[in-house]
Amino acid sequence: MLDTQPPSSGTHTPANTPLLALPIYQTDQDVHFLDRLSVLFRYRSIVGTVFLLVVIAMLVQTYTTIPLYRSQARLLIEDERGSAGGLKDVEAGGGSGSSYQASEPYYQTQYRILRGRELARKVVRRLQLQKVPEFNGSGATPTGLGAVVGSVKKGVIGRIRPLFTSKPATAPAADETREESTLVDAFLERVTVTPIRYSRLVDLSFESASPTFAAAAANTLAEEYIQQNLDSKQIATEKTLSWLSDELSKAKQKVEASERALADYRESQNALSLEERQNIVVSRLNQLNDAVTHAKTVRVQRETLYNQLKSLNAAEAPADTFPAVLQNPLVQQQKAQLAELQREKVRLSEKYGEKHPEIVKLNASLADARQRLQSETAKVIESVRNEYRSALIEEQMLAASLESQKGDAMELAKKSVNYTVLERDAQSNRQVYEALLQREKELRVISNSRSNNVRVVDRAEIPKTPFSPDPRRNLFISILLGLGLGIAAALGIDYLDDTIKTPEDITRKLKLPFLGLVPAVRGDRVPVLSGPVPHDFGEAFRALRTSLVFTSGGNTKRIIAVTSAQPLEGKTTTACNLSIALAFGGARVLLIDADMRRPGAHKALGASNDVGLSHLLVGRARAREAIQKTHDPNLWFMAAGRTPPNPSELLASDRMRSLIANLTSGPFDWIIIDTPPVLAVTDAVILGPVVSGVAFVLGAEMTRRRIAERAIETLMSSGPRVLGAVLNRVDLERNKYYYSRFYGYQYKSYYGRATATA
Q1: Measured at the alpha carbon of residue 700, what is the angle toward residues 699 and 704, in degrees to the nearest 5?
Q2: Can you tell me the distance from the alpha carbon of 378 to that of 461, in angstroms, rounded to the nearest whole number?
Q3: What is the CATH number assigned to the segment(s) 274-427?
Q4: What angle do CA 474, 479, 481 make, to 5 degrees?
Q5: Cα separation of 266 and 235, whole Å?
Q6: By three-state DSSP, how is residue 733 classified?
Q7: Strands (E), 172-321
Q8: Which of 730, 740, 715 lies closest to 512, judged by CA?
């Protein structure tokens, strides 16, 4: 039937024999750090571009900005209450008092005063800020990109600074002119107040384009603040002294009146020694209460013991078994004698009878011993009863004494109520008077000394170098920012790119066995193994051939359909080169171009398309006429033929199934069928059940994941026996970090020679 009838060797298996599973490439589910490096290498041009733009923009901004100098003065602000002492609840304020403030609110108040408009207005007038070129608009200003960046930076800092500084939100004063208000605002924008943590030191800094003016402004601000603080303290002290004089006069009158009332009460109530007497009565009452409690406890114990003994006598139980009786020495002695006599009787009873004189004498001794034991037991019981009666009488006597003492205490308590009230009133008035007197003396000393709790620790000096711009810092920041933005851009683009790029995407995302990869070849010519091709391209198809050969038995007939999700993914080139690679390996291979709509395999192989599969399926040609012998050894080719109006119906016809059955029993070891894309037409789905396996070709970085999943879902609906994936057009140089991780250094040394030919 065929043009060539090569001898067949061995037994052939039917076409529907399934291939073995193809999990040739498996990866873990974890994302390795080197995978991220491969992403950065793939988008290195974007990373580099972003990095250069950021660095260049920062450098331009740095070298076009006018240098600014910062001068800093350091102040020591001590809590003014540390030198005040004494009365802490008294403050100036028009004769009224207020609560004592904590340290933190006091210092926060001082920080806001340092940035207040009143203090700034004094400094502006003293420095004559309207004559300074930097503030009157005649000084140099940034231009170009520096002006734009500086304006944006100033606006951002102006919005952020209030969140971290102590600048109060105050309105211009009524006595300020519009020009002076503008100068005050401009001056405050350059003032920074920085408290040093865990200390009472405050750094007061000023920024200016002139180093000399920066030092002068910082020192002037510190001096004006010290003078203002001293003036405010003097005014507050004078007000407080005036108020204290009035309060001292009132407090003195209250002290005299309260002490006079206390003396009158002592005289009228004979309460000269009330405190000492009260202590004696209370002490005696406590002692009696403790004695009554103890007597009651003793009485309860002895009553309990006596009641137990009475119950034993009433029931005629042996009293000598009771612990109080048993522990009596005389009772114990009598019981010991009785036991000794009983042992002696037992010993003599073994020799003599009951009427023997020794036995009679011993019985008399036993009766006498029992009598003495009962007598001693009765004495113990009588002793317990007497102890109980004594305890009861003692308890009653102590209880009567306690009640009497309670009456004395109540009488004394009534008399001491008024005395205690008068005494407390006198003490309270005297304490207030003494505190006011002490406070007045302290304030007079402070007022005369004119001490100040604020002083300059370090005066501001003329800075030698500008603090802004800082080229080194800006360069370092620009490098970090550029790298960060570049890496973020690369990772963001990679995240948004959902195309299939690596074998890991096939196994992890598409859940397909991975057959092999085919590197990309630059140029317009279709690479075919029968001609000159790059070395890595040829090795890729040899590896793909090995994958297919070793996934089934050596003598098994295999029919492989090659398809893809969409056009231009390289399925036809893959089918042609796979057939040539199998033929080079010594197998008899038949390549069938089943893409009757857009045939292309005949162009890659340089064959004719005059007679082909479509003619065979419509009955216009026979198999020997449709199958062509190619220039490659062991490779035969069946072209698609002319495009019929119903390709899908022809592939689903009985003629197609009969053709597959005849080819299976023929001399070919491999039958490769090139089918149209899955999402374009249903031809590949129709052929899925009648072939041994399907090779699904995916274009690297061109096939989106959802498209591939849709194609696989469509293809699996026909129930193909095995479905494996081939990753085509892989840019090995662009993804070398990824492939060097999985294939090692040898892969690079073999596949990196793009200039070599097969």
Answers
A1: 75
A2: 111
A3: 1.10.287
A4: 90
A5: 47
A6: coil
A7: 191-195, 201-208
A8: 715
What pLDDT, in 10s, does the model give residues 705-720?
899 999 999 888 888 8
Quickly tell me which residue has 């930076």 as its tokens.
153
474-509 pLDDT, tens digit each? 889 999 999 999 999 888 887 887 888 888 888 888
The two tokens of residue 637 are 């080719």
CA distance 673 to 675: 6
Greatest Cα pair distance, the chain, in angstroms, is 158
Helix (H) or strand (E) holding 202: strand 201-208
What global pTM score does this model have?
Answer: 0.50
- Placement of tokens 């370092």 in the chain: 476
Within 350-470, residue ranges assigned H as helices are 357-449
d(CA 656, CA 688): 13
Q: How far is CA 545 from the centre of its chain?
A: 51
* Per-residue tokens: 252: 């003195």
Q: How far apart are CA 124 and CA 214, in angstroms?
A: 13
Residue matched to tokens 């030191």: 201
670's tokens: 């491999």
377-428 residue pLDDT tens:
667 777 777 777 887 888 788 888 877 777 766 766 666 777 778 888 888 9
Topology, domain 67-242+452-467: Bacterial polysaccharide co-polymerase-like (3.30.1890)
> Is the separation of the CB atoms in 282 and 432 below 8 Å?
no
* pLDDT, the chain, mean: 78
Cα gap 278→522, rounded to integer Å: 115
From edge to edge, which strands make up the β-sheet containing 693-699? 514-519, 723-730, 693-699, 558-564, 670-674, 589-593, 635-638, 627-629
Residue 88 DSSP code: S
Instruction: Return the domain boundaries, the chain.
Output: 33-65+469-498, 67-242+452-467, 274-427, 513-751
Q: What is the Cβ-side half-sphere exposure of residue 482, based on CA atoms within 13 angstroms?
A: 21
Q: Residue 561: in which H helix or E strand, if any?
A: strand 558-564
Contact 60, 208 (CB under 8 A): no
Which among 438, 89, 427 has a CA at the least distance from the CA of 255? 427
Q: Give the whole-angstrom CA distance, residue 740 versus residue 748.
A: 7
362-395 residues labelled b (16+ CB within 10 A) or e (exposed): beeebeebeebbeebbeebbeebeebbeebbebb
Whole-angstrom distance, CA of residue 450 vs CA of residue 716? 97
Domain 513-751: give its CATH superfamily: P-loop containing nucleotide triphosphate hydrolases (3.40.50.300)
Residue 487 CB neighbour total at 10 angstroms:
18
Q: If DSSP codes are grouped into helix, strand and coil, which group holds residue 665?
A: coil
Amino acid at 502: T
CB 206 within 8 A of CB 218: yes
Kindly state the tokens that stand for 15: 């076409």
Listed residue (352, 371, 351) closest to 360, CA to CA? 352
